[in-house]
Amino acid sequence: MTMSSAPSAELHVPLTEYPVSDELLTERNEHGVLLVTLNRPDRNNAWTYSMEDAYFGTLIAAANDPAVRVIVVTGAGKSFCPGLDLEVLEASAKGDSRSGYRRWPMTTARLIPKPVIGAINGACAGIGFIQMASCDLVFASSTAKFTTAFARRGLPAENSLSWLLPRLVGTANAMDLLLSARVVLAAEAKQIGLVSKVVDPDELLPTALAYANDLACNCSPASMATIKRQVLSDWERGAEESRLRSLVDVSEHSQLADFLEGVTSFAEKRPPKFRGLDAHLHIPRSINR
User: What is the rounded average pLDDT for all residues in the chain?
Assistant: First the structure.
């Protein structure tokens, strides 16, 4: 099925069993696509600890919600997330590390067994950059700007970005982005493989939602969960180990109802009706020291 045949991207279902925060908006459409919006437009969606709790709590709730099949993440207004809020950053530089506060893994999106798609609508830096890089696919507005930022704040690469970034864009490009912390525009981000597609600002969310709807309506949630695990796990496996592991995965999936439905729907020339996925996921937080 082509993108043009994906169903409507209209959002209409409010969520009631997710973290409640004014700093985060959530809507789920009838196809199982959850739109998550960082919502501090007056501060350009700068990151706070309360936003962190709401965002990662929402991702985990979505992982455990069979009604959610794909997650799209964007920012309110003209910015995605420029990193840690300046007030929090200044306090941290003066020694306020919020000792005892339990922090989430900043790459939590990589642990979610459902596709997480970034729709980057503007400035993306620091922690915002890490959230973007942790997504499975990234669509960007032609007005988006990217910077790792850390070297220009007297910091090293944070939260395993030095491990993640070379795997996304190659060692030379990762060194450039981390050492210089220079601003990269959307066109260059696409060229080096940091983002998947660049579109006009007005087309960003419709494009990301249409892609997400296609996945939600036509791809098995169980298959997508295993594929995501395979790709990320295979970064640290040899080719033969990957092949042997895939044989086990294929054997297991051949016993699932989704396999029968996938084959039957294809033979009957109709859209598939795959089951939702409840991941039973729990991600512990660690003490910030």
Answer: 90
